[in-house]
Amino acid sequence: QLQASGGGLMQAGGSLRLSCAASGLTFSAHAVAWFRQAAGKEREFVASIRRIVSFADYAESVKGRFTISRDNAKNTVSLQMNSLKPEDTAVYYCAAGLSAYDFWGQGTQVTVSS
């Protein structure tokens, strides 16, 4: 089970840090990703971190602004979001899996005002 937290309301240019905690699942043994879904739009990939080796991938729209990281001791994955833009407004979901993202959290709302 995955639990996402850390969302909220922020002005453009500000920062938020999302956290995803796992129970019954070891993040270090799984690839973990963040996705987001804005109102009226399809869910889109934001960032991922590979299992075992912490190599990260990012959507072009967030490169240089967002950083995904994993804390194996706490079994959490975080998404540091800097220089937020109104277009970052969405519900953010964390997901984990081996060859596919089989496990999903409930989502946390991020709203960025202009």
What does this structure look like?
This protein has 114 residues and is mainly β. It is 0% helix and 54% strand. It contains no helices and eleven strands. The strands form two sheets. Strands 2, 4, 5, 6, 9, 10 and 11 form a seven-stranded mixed sheet that branches. A four-stranded antiparallel sheet has the order 1-3-8-7, with no helix packed on it. A hairpin with a 4-residue loop joins β7 and β8. It is globular and about 40 Å long. The termini are far apart.
Q: How helical, in percent, are the residues?
A: under 10%
The pLDDT mean sits at 95
What is the C-alpha radius of gyration, as a whole number of Å?
13 Å
Quaternary organization: single chain
Strand content: over 45%
Unreliable residue runs: none
What is the first-to-last residue Cα distance? 34 Å
Number of strands: 11
Structural class by SSE content: mainly beta
Q: Name the helix and strand elements from N-terminus to C-terminus, one letter apiece.
A: EEEEEEEEEEE
Q: Major beta sheet, specifics?
A: 7 strands, mixed
Helical segment tally? Answer: 0
What sort of overall outline do the alpha carbons produce when their principal axes are compared? globular
